[in-house]
């Protein structure tokens, strides 16, 4: 089994990385950072987001697995104490996986250029110093004109992150969908938005078109502060690509939700 390891920049994560690298090599696995079959992320969910983006061009062939060195994460759900068990599974090439949907972003610029991005959690669009005004179209049909602080479009596995803080629903990653949530929309007798989070199925896209050519910030996953002055359109849809996570043992999504948000940490 060819493997790579990404670790958060702290002493504990680095020490675990060295330990894991040695143990996997001793068990006959091959360290291959350019074309791994499995990528182990050691740190937190942020480290997993980094690992995902580092291997984006191989997203359909690699499998990801995360060890947390802080609190239980959604993607980083193995405890350091369970590392021997994890090593055993990797060495035995026992690669049971689950696949999660991704968000595809297609961005058009005023100069005619175009950019395509993938996100594991979400993208957000926020204005800095004035109200963000943008037209939303769903499947090509005008839906509403949004006025407010911003918008978030999330994946199912990202629904427990920023989306949750905005009052969005938690969505099981078996559902191929994206969710649109509002940030402080202006709603009165003159301006109106739907107000509720919306779930869009696969093959339905939302197009967000800034009405004024203002500066706004766009984030996707841990990438922030991308300032766009000349964006004409951002189209969001469920990507045809999916990301694979190793599921060497059963740790159902709803149990992860409960342990992360309701119960004491047990993993
Ligand atoms: P970070 O390290 O500050 O992470 C923020 C928190 O988000 C961490 O506790 C992390 O465990 C958690 N998180 C990340 N993905 C998650 C997921 N899918 N489900 C549940 N929790 C998750 O920042 P970062 O490392 O740069 O991570 C970027 C992510 O932070 C963004 O993708 C966004 O979802 C999240 N975020 C959340 C808020 C908020 O909740 N108000 C605000 C900004 C960013």
TrEMBL record:
<keyword id="KW-0808">Transferase</keyword>
<comment type="function">
    <text>Involved in the regulation of the intracellular balance of NAD and NADP, and is a key enzyme in the biosynthesis of NADP. Catalyzes specifically the phosphorylation on 2'-hydroxyl of the adenosine moiety of NAD to yield NADP.</text>
</comment>
<comment type="similarity">
    <text>Belongs to the NAD kinase family.</text>
</comment>
<feature type="binding site">
    <location>
        <begin position="45"/>
        <end position="46"/>
    </location>
    <ligand>
        <name>NAD(+)</name>
    </ligand>
</feature>
<keyword id="KW-0520">NAD</keyword>
<keyword id="KW-0067">ATP-binding</keyword>
<dbReference type="GO" id="GO:0051287">
    <property type="term" value="F:NAD binding"/>
</dbReference>
<dbReference type="InterPro" id="IPR017438">
    <property type="entry name" value="ATP-NAD_kinase_N"/>
</dbReference>
<dbReference type="InterPro" id="IPR016064">
    <property type="entry name" value="NAD/diacylglycerol_kinase_sf"/>
</dbReference>
<dbReference type="GO" id="GO:0046872">
    <property type="term" value="F:metal ion binding"/>
</dbReference>
<dbReference type="GO" id="GO:0005737">
    <property type="term" value="C:cytoplasm"/>
</dbReference>
<protein>
    <recommendedName>
        <fullName>NAD kinase</fullName>
        <ecNumber>2.7.1.23</ecNumber>
    </recommendedName>
</protein>
<keyword id="KW-0547">Nucleotide-binding</keyword>
<feature type="binding site">
    <location>
        <position position="184"/>
    </location>
    <ligand>
        <name>NAD(+)</name>
    </ligand>
</feature>
<dbReference type="InterPro" id="IPR002504">
    <property type="entry name" value="NADK"/>
</dbReference>
<feature type="binding site">
    <location>
        <begin position="121"/>
        <end position="122"/>
    </location>
    <ligand>
        <name>NAD(+)</name>
    </ligand>
</feature>
<feature type="active site" description="Proton acceptor">
    <location>
        <position position="45"/>
    </location>
</feature>
<dbReference type="GO" id="GO:0003951">
    <property type="term" value="F:NAD+ kinase activity"/>
</dbReference>
<feature type="binding site">
    <location>
        <position position="149"/>
    </location>
    <ligand>
        <name>NAD(+)</name>
    </ligand>
</feature>
<dbReference type="GO" id="GO:0006741">
    <property type="term" value="P:NADP+ biosynthetic process"/>
</dbReference>
<keyword id="KW-0418">Kinase</keyword>
<dbReference type="InterPro" id="IPR017437">
    <property type="entry name" value="ATP-NAD_kinase_PpnK-typ_C"/>
</dbReference>
<keyword id="KW-0521">NADP</keyword>
<keyword id="KW-0963">Cytoplasm</keyword>
<dbReference type="GO" id="GO:0005524">
    <property type="term" value="F:ATP binding"/>
</dbReference>
<dbReference type="Pfam" id="PF01513">
    <property type="entry name" value="NAD_kinase"/>
</dbReference>
<dbReference type="Pfam" id="PF20143">
    <property type="entry name" value="NAD_kinase_C"/>
</dbReference>
<feature type="binding site">
    <location>
        <position position="147"/>
    </location>
    <ligand>
        <name>NAD(+)</name>
    </ligand>
</feature>
<dbReference type="GO" id="GO:0019674">
    <property type="term" value="P:NAD+ metabolic process"/>
</dbReference>
